[in-house]
Amino acid sequence: MLRLLVNPDTPEAWPIELQPDVISLGRSQQNDLPIEHPSVSSSHCRITVSDAGTWLKDLGSTAGTFVNDELVEEARLQPGQTLRLGEVAMRFESEAPEDSPPPATPPLPPRIAPLSVAASGSVCKFHPQNPARFACAKCQRTFCDLCVTTRLVNGASRRFCRHCGSECQPLQPQLEPAQSPPGFFVSLPGALLYPFQGSGLIMLIAGTAFFYILGQLPLLGLILTGYLFTYAKSIITSTADGRKNPPDWPDFSDWKEDILVPYLQLIALVVLSFGPAFVIGLWRPGTETEARIAYFVALGYGALFAPMGMLALAMFDTVAVLNPIALTWSILRVPFHYLAAAAAFETVLLLHWFAEGAIQTLVPVPFLPGLISSFLNLYFIAVGMRILGLLYVNNQDQFGWFSRLRH
Asked: b/e map of 343-372 (b: 16 or more CB within 10 Å)?
């Protein structure tokens, strides 16, 4: 019998039995195995149990899926491996039938020496930009404050390893500065090649054919828009997770979570960004000149607000973060990087808009203009979302979103 042991080697451990099937895990109650933890995405990952083995597939989660502390998109599970969904630790286990002979006693593992006090340059295993504050003697790893669990033991707060459950020892390292990642402006040109990394070109071609065919059916507009918005968010979150290749196309298993909710998120973003300009365009207050000035000011506000709103939606997956005051404050924390990212983002959209009109004139061949436009649409979406993801990667400490934006 196969099972997942949640919180292994801790008093809070509890098992999940796995039957031959496709099992979805995530924070949403629509999943086969709901896991209510803020670090777990709504649709986090999928486990497939069959005669061919047990396979794990990440579904574009924000915090990532790890197997034996390695970030994975898809992996075959072996008994004894540790899994981590965001901050939730698990262990994949296989129990032998009761009538089977007991396995031979394995040799004792070599003794693990306790970790010495962290030397100069010691950093967190999972956040290299953060200094190591705690060490686990069993795992032989060092962690920052974000990567340990705090529990009250006899009235005192103690830190425990999230992977093996052992108590961690505090460190006071003398650190050298960690190697900084490539700057935002240095990494920006690479966004133009991002859609072709890995299997990106194949995905672009397949997506072009798929969306072009379905695009001929007007009633499917909501489905296409919601699905594309889901994919756009997954590009941002996968970039934020440090992945270099485009993510796979998202699964379509839940109408509400995969289509309707993203569609409503997009509507909310458009209304909050360009609603004022739309209202002014209809109302036209004051004189003609005053109305025109007000309209363009509101339009400029929308163009400035929309990229940051899109980034926030992808990272938090809720319209509650579309707070103009909080997002404006985030923009002011990284003004130069954000203006460059917003300009590049808007340029990508304008290029697609002009290219689509030119294609209709320059390529008077049936079906071909539509196919080219679909291809460019997907390409420019990938480039634009990659730019926003790079903005977050290079400025996440300055944003401080996960401690500020929700308040």
From this structure: ebbeebeeebeebbeebeeeeeeeeebbbb
Torsion angle of C-alpha atoms 377, 379, 385, 388, degrees rounded to 10? -120
Which pLDDT score is estimated for 133?
74
In which region does residue 78 sit, left (phi positive, over 0), alpha (psi from -120 to 50) or beta (all else)?
beta
Containing H/E element for 25? Answer: strand 22-26
CA–CA dist 105, 2 (Å, integer): 21
Backbone dihedral angles phi then psi of residue 166, each to the nearest 5 degrees: -75, 155
pTM score > 0.85 for this model? no
Extract the tokens encoding 330. Answer: 């985030």
User: CB atoms < 10 A from the CB of 263, how many?
Assistant: 20
For residue range 126-176, list pLDDT tens digits in order. Answer: 655 556 777 887 777 777 666 677 666 665 667 777 767 778 887 754 434
Q: Which residues contact 406 (CB under 8 A, 6 or more apart)?
A: 316, 320, 321
Q: What percent of the chain has pLDDT over 70?
A: 79
Q: Is 122 helix (H, G, I), strand (E, B) or coil?
A: coil
Phi/psi region, residue 7 (left: phi>0; alpha: psi -120 to 50; beta: rest), is: left
Q: Give 225-239 pLDDT, tens digit per residue.
A: 888 888 898 899 888
Whose structure tokens read 């300055």?
398
Helix (H) or strand (E) holding 54: strand 53-58
Tokens of 208: 């072009």
Secondary structure (DSSP) of 360-387: HHH--SSSHHHHHHHHHHHHHHHHHHHH
Burial class (CB in 10 A: 0-12, 13-18, 19+), 120: exposed
Residue 306: both structure tokens together: 């929309």
Q: Are 340 and 188 in contact (CB under 8 A)?
A: yes
Question: Are the CB atoms for 265 and 228 separated by under 8 Å?
Answer: no
d(CA 344, CA 130): 30
CA-CA distance, 294 to 300, in Å (whole number)?
10
